[in-house]
Amino acid sequence: MDCCVIFIDVVDFTKKMDLFGAGIIIEVLGLMFEEFSTIITNNGGTIDKYIGDAIMGLFGCPQAVAHAEILACVTIAEIFTELAKLNTVFQQKYGITMSIRVGLHTGEVHAGTFSAFSFVLD
């Protein structure tokens, strides 16, 4: 099955935790993830997982969609626009701004549930 995968990672997350404290950064990360997740799902994507300070989103998997790459790129553009808005709030409230890195890959994937004992194709 063809799928487009996006990865969104917070730049210097550990350093910011040390500088600003876990409470502020966890609150900021929660707000970012809430907004980013909404953008991903509103554009037809699926949240695959949260990995520490990263989100992995899928387009065209587990259900096929036309133009998954375009949907993923539109989503990434909307996420950067939302981050600019959030950074205005973060700067005013906490005196910090956040940056993200984004990766995108499209191609054939084998999707399903993997475990040590079995593989089930979804």
Describe this structure in words.
The protein is an alpha+beta fold. Helix content is 46%, strand content 30%. The chain is built from three helices and six strands. It has helices at 13-20, 22-42, 68-94; strands spanning 2-10, 46-51, 54-59, 100-108, 112-114, 119-121. The strands form two sheets. The chain has a four-stranded antiparallel beta sheet with strand order 2-3-1-4, covered by helices on one side. Strands 5-6 form a two-stranded antiparallel sheet. Strand 2 (46-51) and strand 3 form a beta hairpin. The longest helix has 27 residues, at 68-94. It is globular, with a radius of gyration of 16 Å.
Secondary structure: elements and pairs:
Layout lengths: L1 E9 L2 H8 L1 H21 L3 E6 L2 E6 L8 H27 L5 E9 L3 E3 L4 E3 L1
Antiparallel strand pairs: 1-3, 1-4, 2-3, 5-6
Helix pairs in contact: 1-2, 2-3
- Biggest sheet: strands side by side, in what order? 2-3-1-4
Quantity of strands, as a count? 6
Count of helices?
A: 3
How far the N terminus sits from the C terminus, by CA atoms, comes to: 11 Å
Give the SSE string: EHHEEHEEE
Beta content: 25-35%
What percent of residues adopt helix (DSSP H or I)? Answer: 40-55%
Mean pLDDT: 90
Largest sheet: 4 strands, antiparallel
- Described by the principal axes of the CA atoms, the overall outline is globular
Stretches with pLDDT under 50, minimum 5 residues: none
Structural class: alpha+beta
